[in-house]
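Researcher: Re-running this chain for the archive, since the previous output was lost when a drive failed. Same request as before.
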Amino acid sequence: MPLITVDHTDRLAGSFDRRGFGLALNRLAVKLLDAKPEKCKTRFRRTEENVVGADTETFALVAVRVEVFPGRSAAAKAALAEAVLEVLPGYLGPDAGPVQVAVQVEELDHLAYRSAVLGG
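Model: Regenerated structure tokens:
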């Protein structure tokens, strides 16, 4: 049931294949975390302003947060984080410029989480 959130700099809007990256993230979660494909949920949020280091004009930012139920090993979570770093460049266009990337895989309180399909 990974719940994946990808925050990205507004500047990447025209050079970031978000759908392709989202599908890749879901496939990685299935492969590395034994997640069910239909339970993978990935959303993207464009951020208007990010400050990386001392120079806001140099770096764009992509921050990936993966929330999973407890029970995955530390090695599996680390493998997912590394795999995300490896595949991301393939979804950034040539004019993306330098991109600072952060990946965080963390456990979610499964007792407080609910999910449903509403409507039709």
